[in-house]
Design a protein that fits this description.
alpha/beta, four-stranded parallel β-sheet, three-stranded antiparallel β-sheet, elongated
Length: 474
Amino acid sequence: MPKTLCPEQELSLTFEGLRDFRPRHLVSKNPFIHAVVQAIDIVSKADSQKLSGQWITEQLGQWPDLPVDLSSFDLETVPQKPTGGTTSMDRILDMVSMPEPGSSRGLAALKSALQVHLQALLTHIYSRKAFRQLEALWRSLNLLFSQRGRDQSIICRIVPYEPGDLETALSRVFSELILDPPSLILVDEPFDASPASIRLMDQAAGIAQTLLAPAICWVGPAFFHCTTWTEWDRLPYLPHHLQRPEYAKLRAVRQQPAASWMGLSCNRFLLRPSYTRTSGEEEGALRFEEKDRPWGSPVYALAALMLSSTAVYGWPTHVSEWKRIRLEGMPVVETDTRPRPTEATLSDERLHQMSRIGLIPLMGQSGRDILFSPVDTTLGGEPLSRQLFISSISRELIRCKDAYGGQSSSKQEISRYLHRCCDRIWQERGGVQPDSVHLDVQETGSGSRSRISIAPSRGMLPGAGGDVVLDLDW
């Protein structure tokens, strides 16, 4: 903190729940900021009750680090009694307790100075990048967990990394996850079209392919060499735009098989209404002007839609069925036209173009607090829903194989066991049956190998697109 705002030049903030990010709770948990608030209350009390300057000085003296010089303010609120005789007019003035001309202005100025300092403190805190990232993570995870079904259990692991160190973090986490793969990988890092970003995309896609766990990343307007989304109206047809030389490395990555395991999302969503001096849930001195809107990374909203799909259908594969799978009650940006929950408003034509280049944009229903994603694709062009199904069914069958342990490796026993496992999987995921399941178990020199061919029904995988074939060694 600047010394002009805080003599100690630092503030220690503790967060135990989402509400601790709200100004009133944040203030109550930090001694220095809380002292400023209490000082404002004392000055208000003294002014309304006409308490003495000595009382004010004694009360404010318990906080020697208050960011104001009390000697520069007139703290007296009680007018001095005249020592001479009194007239009828003097007695009338005493009855109405008119303050001295300068005293009220003195306390008002002190209160105003404290309020201005408090607002400066809050503005500084809420504009800090680290603070905004932390609040965004908490609110995004809250959105994510709120979409789970009643019987869904979620384990979320957060992997922090230093700025510019994502490549090392991805390598480290891959070596740890190879023995216990996740269902989904969220990379909360805004990528652009630079060689460094494309290299990270390629790395994340390769990890996702190896783990059979789709990776969801995101891009901002910088991906299109724009500063804000308002600039991209000048861009040509997007598939043609990506033929420019600076996108050559991206085109090469899109041709790799691993690209089908990456969902590249865009268009951030509003996490909460902005704090302003004229509106918001806070009152009085706690009202301040927030410089930037609190946006959330689209990877969390897309993951929340997958959880919503799982809660409704038993599978995350209906993520793009926007008429049913959507997030409601979202904060909205108040604009001159119609409110929206997203950073940018996308036309149907731009939406179609983005799907052609492998992007999954978030969309907001015009004038409403609804968030959804109508595009089902990956960076490589395969439907994301199909990769989600492959990931889900692979994980279920690998668990079954691990649970089988050292039991009989005869073809008949393995085949019967797999049939029972499949029946249980369908039942646990809502009872939706595939169109067909074929099991073929063959003996090998070191044991047995099973080939499972599943023709998913539309309840499992919208727009099926062919059988899913998996091989397991026993």
